[in-house]
Amino acid sequence: MLSPILIRLFSFFLLMAAWAPCQAQTRPASLPNIVLIYMDDMGYGDVDAYGGIGYTTPNIDRLAAQGMRFTNFYSAQPICSASRAAILTGCYPNRIGFHGALMPHSPIGISGREETIAGMLKKKGYATAIIGKWHLGDARKFLPLQHGFDTYFGLPYSNDMWPVGYDGKPFKDTSSPRAKWPPLPLIDGNKVVRYIRTLDDQSMLTTWYTERAVQFINHHRTQPFFLYFAQSMVHVPLGVSDKFKGKSKQGLFGDVMMEIDWSVGQVMKALKENGMENNTLFIFTSDNGPWLTFGNHAGSAGALREGKATTWEGGQREPAIIRWPGRVPEGTVCNKLAANIDLLPTLAAVTGAPLPANKIDGVNILSLLKGDPGANPRDHLFYYYHLNSLEAVRQGPWKLILPHPYHSYEGQLPGKDGWPGRMHKDSTGLALYDLRRDPGERYDVKAAHPEVVTQLQQLAEEAREDLGDDLTGRKGKNRRPPGRL
């Protein structure tokens, strides 16, 4: 007969054996951490792995070598607020009432009816943080902590939205609307903790952001987390710390890119030191193409046409690198069509999180990340800009340009050393480009492929029915309003 002590020990071990499987099924560590680094105004040709020259980006290149590099990855619109609304909600920004770049004291912002990636992942027990630029409304009700994020440290809008001129001096002309803007507020949570008043202050942004990002990683060793690291650089005015000043052969822009690469390296180092490297899905991309009018303070779109604020390829096709050890094949290149609106449904599939109740436009691209050779989850993409103008449609290698006016950088002398050059008004008629052979969009082939033109026009008509189109006077049936004060 067993003694009372042995009986109690036996019962204890039985209890532990029954308890352990339950714990294994619910352990947060079984879910991957997610790091999303979102650059500002970084062009398709601004990273070594995509052709950048005059400086090195070894950490970003290491991400590419250890993961998947996309060659046909798009931002849903070629400008700040709209692209950020898209990446966080999985929606074309015009579906949820967003366009352009919101100014300080904006009366609109992200609606509480829209679910962000952060809000979605919180349902699975994720800790959520945004470090850096928000730009979805600066009133308290629009700030990140009210939209799924536990932690926020950064600027509420672009770093040029302050009462300071291109020479770094406060505006003397008080009639200028910019002279009435407040100093740049650096926000921690919901509170302003300091103001960015000078170019020297701007030079510390990347360092401050990086320190807080690493701190967040270090504090979440036992809980899955989502870190949305939205850099303010390389948006003008450029700022770089003394660590990298004068280190590149491309002047201040190259110095800034080297510091950005250092920042990426610090995040990678923190993941490794905390034993998280192999259980982290790491995404690196940009919000829109380069602001070419700033010349040597702007990036490069590579061989693509035009840049930021246009729906030509240089405005919306972005570098994108995704690393997830053991899941995403190392050193691979994906040439299939994908977009930033696809990240939300993909992360839902990865984590088992429920999709938002409202209609979204993204598609799950997990099959691409796994390297499935026959995968093609995104059939087409609509290029909207301005308030609600449908300017182009892409399907496969074909891009149909719809007649529209635009502002062009071509034929204009760009600015220099922080001062902008000029753009000029231009327009285009109907045109068809084969992006596989002509990524620079120079050779209109619509006369040779009328059947492709017809197919893409049918897709455009579907978009107008759903989302509307200012260029043809269509309102659309399924647009939702933004949040309002």
Automatic annotation (TrEMBL):
**Keyword Calcium assigned:** yes
Q: Where is the composition biased (Basic residues)?
A: 474-485
Q: Which PROSITE patterns match?
A: SULFATASE_2
Using the UniProt annotation, give all residue ranges assigned to the region (Disordered): 461-485
The UniProt record lists the Sulfatase N-terminal domain at 32-352
CDD domains assigned: GALNS_like
The domain of life for this entry's organism is Bacteria
Q: Where is the signal peptide?
A: 1-24
Q: Which family does it belong to?
A: Belongs to the sulfatase family.
Protein name, as recorded: Sulfatase
**From which organism does this entry originate?**
Compostibacter hankyongensis
